[in-house]
Design brief:
By secondary structure, the protein is mainly alpha-helical. Strands 1-2 form a two-stranded antiparallel ribbon. It has helices spanning about 5-15, 20-40, 50-60, 65-70, 75-85, 85-95, 110-120, 130-140, 145-165, 185-190; strands at about 120, 125. The longest helix has 23 residues, at about 20-40. It has one domain (about 5-190): Orthogonal Bundle (Hypothetical protein af1432), CATH 1.10.3210. It is built from 10 helices and 2 strands; from the N terminus they run αααααααββααα.
């Protein structure tokens, strides 16, 4: 598996021209994902922490462009990461909007952790699923088809949340405490060492 280092992730973000507000959102997503992955690994889930951090940091790699072009930014970011030689990270990033659920009873995957983490971060703030999906409905649920799609994603994400927290010794509200972390990059450095 080839995963970019923390420094490489930040260099890629800079080379792709990711604006500061999307970078801060991505750092929060990676923080939530890494926090969950660390705790789930302690319970025996075979999650790669470097893969989860890279997937969280790079998941919105082309979002700023997509706002102008209308492209599917999960797919365009996946392609950019494939071009850079990071197929595993590309798979994680490619599923951060529409997750392909794993079969029941299989180990948790980095794709699921990063997808869930993205659904807990509204702009730069970690919030509940309810708050995040309310925001998504307000921003993207203007047509009936969009509203139905968001409702289906919310139901899927609630199921995933139950799966993620089933064995953890704390509930989803614990993740809100990560809003108090001031130096996200220092957390990554410590957790990845």
């Amino acid at each position: 598996m080839r995963v970019p280092s923390l420094e490489e992730c930040y260099r890629i973000l800079e080379e792709e021209g990711v604006p500061p507000h999307i970078l801060r959102h991505s750092e929060k997503v990676a923080l939530v994902a890494a926090f969950l992955a660390r705790n789930l690994r302690d319970l025996g889930e075979p999650l790669s922490l470097p893969l989860v951090v890279a997937g969280g940091l790079l998941h919105d790699l082309t979002k700023h462009r997509s706002l102008e072009t209308g492209e599917n930014h999960a797919e365009s970011a996946r392609r950019r990461l494939l071009e850079r030689g990071f197929p595993e990270v590309a798979e994680v990033v490619g599923q951060h909007i529409f997750l392909k659920p794993g079969p029941p009873g299989t180990p948790l995957r980095a794709e699921e952790v990063v997808y869930y983490a993205d659904k807990r971060v509204r702009h730069e703030e970690i919030v509940s699923l309810k708050e995040r999906f309310q925001d998504l409905r307000e921003r993207y649920g203007r047509r009936p088809a969009s509203w139905v799609r968001i409702w289906r994603l919310e139901e899927l994400t609630k199921l995933l949340e139950r799966r993620l927290f089933k064995r953890l010794p704390f509930g989803p509200e614990k993740v809100l405490e990560l809003n108090q972390v001031e130096d996200v990059k220092a957390c990554f450095t410590a957790w990845l060492s």
